[in-house]
Amino acid sequence: MTGRMLTIWTNAAFPEGVAKRLEGALAGYRVVKPGKLEAVNLVAGEPHEGFMEAEVAFGQPDVGQVMESKKIRWVHLTSAGYTRYDREDLRESCRRRGVVVTNSSHVYDEPCAQHVLAMMMAMGRQLPGAWVDQGGKREWPSAELRAASRLMIGEKVLIYGFGTIARRLVELLTPLRMEITGVRRRPSGDEGVRIVTDGDEVLGEADHVVNILPANDATGGYFDGKRFGKMKKGVLFYNIGRGTTV
Length: 246
What we know:
Helix content is 31%, strand content 16%. The chain is α/β, with parallel strands linked by helices. It starts with 6 loop residues before the first strand and ends in a 7-residue tail after the last strand.
């Protein structure tokens, strides 16, 4: 690539301010874009002839073009999930050509983990109900809200899908002295909490069930009526995994 300008392809649509910053940072490179940019990173990109000239791709490129391109060297996905790229033919093609595919999991670990923590604390302290009352009748049912409130200390959390989001969530929950268990098909040994490979064995014990499962053939409809039936009365279920898993 020495002697000519590096070509970067992207189909990601950004807010105007972000787009200008990105354009400024890439001023020394050739940037190609399809006519239709995608604002949602869950949408698959359509084939685009400009992709075949790029060494670097940023966004959600067409899988077929990733495998066909003779020039592409690095594909970075704007999403943490990579379901459409989780294919053996794509992995083999990339290995053979030395193409690197990366995702944006570390972009989402902090906001998603904080979001789960916020929901846990809000539900524990009955904030949704108090907020509705504040904006409506203002009857101030303090006794009822207090009776329905719960402390998180000692409660049991069961986390399905133990990636970067789960690891950060564990860090945030640890000071609250909760009992945390992770569900993972292949434990690595460095999770820092109790890990089980079969969540059904402990599902009925959980006070909080956190779903961070990705979308794939094994997880489609994973949380069905049967599994919800195993959960105890009063359990709180948080879904920040793919919608197809529930």
